[in-house]
Specification:
Shape: elongated
Helix content: over 70%
Organism: Bos mutus grunniens
Keywords: Membrane, Transmembrane, Transmembrane helix
Protein name: EBP like
């Protein structure tokens, strides 16, 4: 957290992504669970949200961990930091490129 107690842009974006995954997971689970009891619909909503989190957030992390390395990913991370105007501590950002 920053000195003023407010969240930074990266934290806000992360919370927005998680909230949107939760909304999509709940909507999908409730739609798939039509005609079932409340407990089953709730369980389906949780499982859909969990699957979306694994595919959207953890999948790319595991893929980049196995296929790439820091040297290869610095340019990608730097370009994302620059395009979204985020603070960045990677080597390419500090070098100005």
């Amino acid at each position: 957290m920053h000195a003023g107690g407010e969240l930074g842009a990266a934290a806000g974006g992360s919370l927005l992504l998680c909230a949107s995954l939760l909304a999509v997971g709940c909507a999908l689970g409730l739609r798939l669970g039509r005609g079932r009891g409340a407990a089953d619909r709730g369980l389906l909503a949780w499982l859909c949200f969990n699957a979306l989190v694994h595919f959207a957030l953890e999948g790319p992390y595991v893929y980049l961990s196995m296929v790439g390395n820091i040297t290869d990913s610095d340019a990608l991370i730097a370009s994302l930091c620059i395009s979204y105007r985020l603070p960045c501590a990677c080597v390419n950002c500090m070098a100005g490129g």
